[in-house]
Amino acid sequence: FGRSLKIVEVTTSTQEEVRLLAEQGTPSGALVLAEEQTGGRGRQGRKWFSPPRKGVWMSLLLRPERPLSFAPQLTLLIAVAVCRAIRKTSGVDAGIKWPNDLLVQGKKVCGILVESVSEDERIRYCIAGIGIDVNVEAHELPADLQAVATSLKIESGRNQDRVALITAVMNELEDLYTLYEQEGFTPIKHLWEALSVTLGKRVAVKTPQGEISGVADALDESGALILLDDKGMPFPLFSGEVHLA
Ligand code: BTN
């Protein structure tokens, strides 16, 4: 992964850069990095703050030959890879909030956006967007992010090497992807569980059926988060934004 690399100074969103490459037939593993994004996108239509040279704003093209139902597992695998890379290179104790936000002491340090394009229930390609707040200073965070976001520099007290971090992310991704291909989702699931800050906690989530709250009990084999409601009834969550209560 990342052996074909494009670095741009500024772009709207690296997701769009990779979408163009994908549609031109670029092989799996291509990576686009931007120093700055003017229209960085988050999940659920949110904006992603992407100031120049302060973070890792990148998107990876993947072409897994798998059914569409593989996408949630891939999302969790990427979260594990980035979490391990952050811990190894910066020493910052990041954990995973289901499905794939990385938090440090309750504040978000990294967001992951996996967009899948499919045909006849099979994946044509996935665009894995990874945004890591690396060297953003506390006073540089926009007012609305002050209470909810942090950076590796804020948490570690020193500037972090972005190249070392990107290299570590790619190495972890390759290792975990190989493990996944050899042994399936179970070992990835165990790694995810060990890094989770969600399991065992009370969480609330908005679903089309209304707000549900319960204790996050387990991850199932498909990647769904199993909540136990107040009566102890299991409720599988396939998507959505969970809030730690
Ligand atoms: C989220 O937590 O909501 C996901 C954020 C994903 C941000 C990254 S930065 C690189 C790539 N390009 C984008 O526009 N978004 C993703």
TrEMBL record:
Gene Ontology biological-process entries: protein lipoylation; regulation of DNA-templated transcription
This protein's GO CC annotations: cytoplasm
Domain BPL/LPL catalytic, residue spans: 1-181
Keywords: ATP-binding, Biotin, DNA-binding, Ligase, Nucleotide-binding, Repressor, Transcription, Transcription regulation
Enzyme class: ligase
GO molecular function, one term: transferase activity
Enzyme Commission number(s) of this protein: 6.3.4.15
Reactions listed under catalytic activity: biotin + L-lysyl-[protein] + ATP = N(6)-biotinyl-L-lysyl-[protein] + AMP + diphosphate + H(+)
Residues the entry annotates as binding biotin: Q37, R41, G42, R43, K108
Protein function: Acts both as a biotin--[acetyl-CoA-carboxylase] ligase and a repressor.
Family that this chain belongs to: Belongs to the biotin--protein ligase family.
Name this protein carries in UniProt: Bifunctional ligase/repressor BirA
Species whose genome carries this gene: Paenibacillus faecis
Residue range from the parent sequence: 79 to 323 of 323
